[in-house]
Amino acid sequence: MKKFNVSLVWLIFSLTVLFTLSFFYLHTPPHSDERHFIETIKIFRESNKLSIIKDYPEITPPLFYILFSFWSKLSGFSVESLRTLNLFISLIVWQLIFNLIRKITIRTKVTFLLSILLIANPYIIGISVFVYNDNLMLLFILSGVISFLGDKPMLTGLFFSLALLTRQYSIIFPIALFFYSIITSLVEKELKKDFLLSSAISTLPILVLFIYWQGLAPQSGLEYWVIKNRSFYNIDYINSYFTYSTFYLLPLIIFFPYKKEFRKSVFIISILLSIILSFFPIKPSLATLFQTEVTTIGYGHKLLKMIFGDRELLVGIFQSILLLAGSYTTIYLLYDSVMKVKTGRCEKEIFFTLSWIIFLLVMPFSFQVWEKYLVMILPFYLIAIYQSMNYKSEIAGS
């Protein structure tokens, strides 16, 4: 297929799926957390004062609420109009996912299969229709990463900044960009000041908001939503994200051992890591228990409990297998990255592994654990895995 035709086929496929989703869900009542997002958008819509960003009943930054409230002033305030805007954002996000994957593989069939694997995730489907800020954040993150691959540091910084103004969790990408720039500078013995500056500048707007709020979020939102968790740093979150990232990318990860040379050292370290993490079992955060009475951390966890019922031992065994697979894959990605750096090959693919590692290290600081938070990192973890399975980098221009 020609490039234009490939993109056109994906666009038609995306339009068909999104139209089908809108047919079934556009006019349904607000879904779960969508309710409070819509309520906050209404607060922003009814306020004409800039001071509204000082305090509102959410713990995420205001860009999402500002954008959607502005849209509601143009199109009228309704659940349907807000979902329409979100569906349009989804259409762009799906094209960005496809085009990003095309940058790392020249095989059309693989591009389609990997793209479908990502958008088939129930959380991607959910945020594509319902009004959640994750979708807008993903749009900015994908745009930033594509700009990074295209050697456009200022655009990279701009998009990462917009992502941070949508959700604080996206801080992992400026951090990954910073460490990538440091590593590249050391390997190539030349300071990569453009991307170092880009990573620093991208954090400035959210830092200004932190100062304005005198905290990490508006005070009303902190008081309403944040419930102190069991510890300051929740290691069980690492177990959770290892396990359920494997669950959602299983059709790809299952081929990983067959494509990679078996390394005893990687396997032993993976077993030790899995054993350590097993002492911190998967469980919902206190915030989830107190605010929703939900006893799982998401759809994957819920599905396993539905399949195995009260047989917790079987749930534990299955999760342990997923944990070991996730640990082995991640340790191997780290091994590959270290070997490439040692041989003077500091390719851009290292950024994807760095993003995944930093995600695992940063997320345990959160008061909340949820499978949905994997949405922002799964595209890049998938790319890291695929590139590791295909040793030679295929990133255009690298």
Describe this structure in words.
It is built from 21 helices and no strands. By secondary structure, the protein is mainly α. The protein folds into two domains: 226 residues, no CATH class; 172 residues, no CATH class. Helix 4 packs antiparallel against helix 5. The longest helix is centred in the last third of the chain and has 31 residues. The protein is globular, with a radius of gyration of 21 Å. The C terminus is likely disordered.
Keywords, please?
single chain, 398 residues, mainly alpha, 21 helices, 69% helix, globular, disordered C terminus
Number of helices: 21
Give helix % range: 55-70%
The Cα radius of gyration reads: 21 Å
Low-confidence stretches: 392-398
Report strand %. Answer: under 5%
Main sheet summary: none
Main structural class = mainly alpha
Distance between the termini: 24 Å
The number of domains: 2
Oligomer: single chain
Q: Whole-number average pLDDT?
A: 93
Total E-strand runs = 0
Query: What order do the SSEs take from the amino end to the carboxyl end, as H and E?
Result: HHHHHHHHHHHHHHHHHHHHH
* Shape by Cα distribution: globular
What's the topology here?
Elements: H1 3-25, H2 34-46, H3 63-75, H4 79-102, H5 108-119, H6 122-129, H7 134-149, H8 153-164, H9 172-188, H10 193-202, H11 204-213, H12 219-225, H13 236-248, H14 250-253, H15 256-259, H16 264-278, H17 286-292, H18 299-308, H19 312-342, H20 349-362, H21 378-389
